[in-house]
Amino acid sequence: xxxxxxxxxxxxxxxxxxxxxxxxxxxxxxxxxxxxxxxxxxxxxxxxxxxxxxxxxxxxxxxxxxxxxxxxxxxxxxxxxxxxxxxxxxxxxxxxxxxxxxxxxxxxxxxxxxxxxxxxxxxxxxxxxxxxxxxxxxxxxxxxxxxxxxxxxxxxxxxxxxxxxxxxxxxxxxxxxxxxxxxxxxxxxxxxxxxxxxxxxxxxxxxxxxxxxxxxxxxxxxxxxxxxxxxxxxxxxxxxxxxxxxxxxxxxxxxxxxxxxxxxxxxxxxxxxxxxxxxxxx
Length: 282
Hints:
By secondary structure, the protein is mostly helical. It folds into 2 domains: about 10-205, Lysozyme, CATH 1.10.530.10; about 220-280, no CATH class. The protein has helices at about 10-25, 25-40, 60-70, 75-80, 95-105, 110-130, 135-160, 165-170, 170-175, 175-180, 190-205, 220-230, 245-255, 265-280, and strands spanning about 80-85, 90. A hairpin with a 5-residue loop joins β1 and β2. The longest helix has 24 residues, at about 135-160. It is globular, with a radius of gyration of 19 Å.
């Protein structure tokens, strides 16, 4: 892998597309998350924490995901140098090596791959605990609150959507008042917070050219698997409600080939092409 830093938006989008192809995590979700987190800036740095890069990984989260997934993406040297203590903290013995690993957060290729792997891990864990398919908003809740926090939030959302989010997550609410409180100071409900994140993800993705909703299914590969089965969702895939109708409608349109100009693809035909490429891997 070439780990040279990439700066312009087109190259950042290419890095995100590559991460999506290699992991199966939806391109639109990864695009929306990057826009929300950093404004698509690979060198973005938070003022109040160690969060850095396209996906604003804090140091411990970054070391954890590189330790788990670095080797498969050509970063064995980094993974091998990361150790986890008995308390669960990730450390790197050599200061220069630690700095080099943390600096990878500003490389969009590496950051996008690690963000996609992290999302995939969270997806599997959430689906196991919630007993249902997840969507992009669910994954962003795991990014924002951590996996344990997301489990609590999403579980409570199903049973008591009107509950105050600030009452459940007081520390997060103190640090993010605009997310947990309305302009008049009233605490937002879990449902309002969730819908706010969904809208924010979708606006972010749309602003940088997404062809679908970032808040919807996080697994573009699921649509390819459904497509290969004639539009039906295959048991065991991560497709969620809403995937199959889109595939069926687009296929129906494509069946009338005379109406399709191969030199001027529509957003839907472009998305189908992307999904078929994603199914082949990177």
